[in-house]
Fold this sequence. Notes:
By secondary structure, the chain is of the alpha/beta class. It has helices at 2-16, 42-56, 76-87, 105-116, 140-146, 154-170; strands at 22-25, 28-29, 60-64, 70-71, 74-75, 94-97, 103-104, 121-125. It has a two-stranded parallel sheet. It has a two-stranded parallel sheet with strand order 2-5. Helix 2 packs across helix 4 and helix 4 (105-116) packs across helix 6 (154-170).
Amino acid sequence: MKLFSEQMCKYYRQDFGIQTQVFRFHNVCGPHGAWEGGREKAPAAICRKIIEAKQSGKHEIDVWGDGNQTRSFMYIDDCITGLDLLMATDYSGPLNLGRSELVTINQLIDLIEKIADIEVTRNYQLDKPQGVRGRNSDNTSIKNILNWEPRIDLETGLKQTYDWIYSQILSE
Length: 172
C-alpha cells in the first residue's frame, strides 16, 4: 500500500503537474501519541508498562518477542523539522525520515529503566507478534538532499515521552 501511494504521487506529478512529496517515516514517538489501547508504538508501550510496574510495586513487564528485535526511533520534534525542511524544497522523490541509530527492544527497555530509576524483570512473550526482525533508516539521501538528519538522541526523546505518559497516568 505504501509503494502504491508513492507510485500514485509520481503519476499525479507526471500526469497532472501536482506537486507531491513523500517521506518514509520510521517509528515516530513522543508526547501526545498513543500510549495505551493497542495502537501505541514500542517506546510508549514500554514507558507505560514500566510506570505501571513501578506504581504497583511488581517490578516486571511483558515483552513481545525475545527483546532482540531492532528498530530506530525518532522523536516527534525531529519529524516535524524534517517535514518542514522537505516542504521548503522542490524535491519530489521519496526520502526516509528516521534516526539511523539502531537499538534492540532490550536496549530500549534499559534506557527507560534508567529514566524511571527502576529495574524490571522481563517476561518474554515468544508467542506474541514481533514484526520484522530488524528495521533501520538509511539517511544517505536525506543528508544529501536536505543537508540534515534527525538530531534528538533517543534518551532525550524517551525522557520527554516517559514524563508525558506518567502525567497522563496520574491524571486518570
